[in-house]
């Protein structure tokens, strides 16, 4: 199968709503990023701020208590919730009750969001990831579109049931994340000679979620079709570019 190059710029122009004097705050999108821990405060910031820059009205971040003051200090535009906990700050005997509290805090807000990004800078702490699994289940129950990136992909690759068959999920793997997904889902290695067919099979196998494989050309498949976007960016490959993409993807998903 041939990949189909799409004119992403024209599509973005068509789906982005025009500014309109009759609109009120929130109508151009209320999004949330679930991510940010002791090590990573930049990734959730990049994802959340890029959603605002592309036009969303409100952008929230749900992160650990340590990460919150740092992310707040980057930008007064973000609404930052210090609700997530990592194992080091929770006693074994308190884990159940703390997990319930975390979920209750996120649930208070969840229904208001048009879209979530799960994973930028989340880290891989097992207790934190257990809580985020529950958040993902609740988002799915409420039919909220989710973009899964960064450590969120580490989580769902090990727990495919979280997204399997959920057509409102978009996975945005980089080269390593894609390799892990292919190994787990297709029990094979990445095949760059037939990349379009492989991304199609992968999306189909995960039950029609959308896979956006990042690379020199981004390949996007929902299990039925494959599109590619080869617009030239900058030749540097520094950290943070994928986080920006996941945040922008979040706003665009809502517009679409
Ligand atoms: N400024 C920031 O805050 C940035 C944070 N980032 C975040 O960094 C996180 C990792 O993303 P990468 O693309 O670097 O991920 P990779 O999968 O490439 O791995 C990153 C590191 O994690 C280690 N690792 C692999 N398996 C592990 C495991 N089971 N347990 C613990 N560590 C393991 C690897 O050895 C590697 O050093 C993501 O949450 C991502 O969003 C990046 O987006 C870059 C920028
Ligand atoms: N070889 C490449 N040539 C051109 N563009 C690329 C290349 N690899 C990735 N990109 C682009 O860079 C952006 C980020 O992709 P990348 O693979 O760096 O994500 P990531 O590792 O998840 O980023 P992050 O550091 O934010 O976690 C994507 O928009 C992708 O299209």
From TrEMBL:
Key word ATP-binding present: yes
Q: Which UniProt keywords apply?
A: ATP-binding, Lyase, NAD, NADP, Nucleotide-binding, Phosphoprotein
Q: Which residues bind ATP?
A: 214-218, 233-242
Q: Which domain of life is it from?
A: Eukaryota
Question: Which Gene3D superfamilies does the annotation name?
Answer: 3.40.1190.20
Top class in the EC scheme: lyase
Pfam families for the chain = Carb_kinase
Tell me yes or no: is ATP-binding among this UniProt entry's keywords. yes
Q: Which reaction does it catalyse?
A: (6S)-NADPHX + ATP = ADP + phosphate + NADPH + H(+); (6S)-NADHX + ATP = ADP + phosphate + NADH + H(+)
* Binding-site positions, (6S)-NADPHX: 121, 174-180, 243
A GO MF term = ATP-dependent NAD(P)H-hydrate dehydratase activity
The cofactor required is: Mg(2+)
Protein EC = 4.2.1.93
A single Gene Ontology biological process assigned to it is: metabolite repair
- The chain positions of domain YjeF C-terminal read 8-256
InterPro entries with a match to the protein in the record: CARKD, Ribokinase-like
Function according to Swiss-Prot or TrEMBL: Catalyzes the dehydration of the S-form of NAD(P)HX at the expense of ATP, which is converted to ADP. Together with NAD(P)HX epimerase, which catalyzes the epimerization of the S- and R-forms, the enzyme allows the repair of both epimers of NAD(P)HX, a damaged form of NAD(P)H that is a result of enzymatic or heat-dependent hydration.
Family assignment? Belongs to the NnrD/CARKD family.
Q: Which PANTHER family match?
A: ATP-DEPENDENT (S)-NAD(P)H-HYDRATE DEHYDRATASE, ATP-DEPENDENT (S)-NAD(P)H-HYDRATE DEHYDRATASE FAMILY MEMBER
- NCBIfam families registered for this protein in UniProt: yjeF_cterm
Name of this chain's protein: ATP-dependent (S)-NAD(P)H-hydrate dehydratase
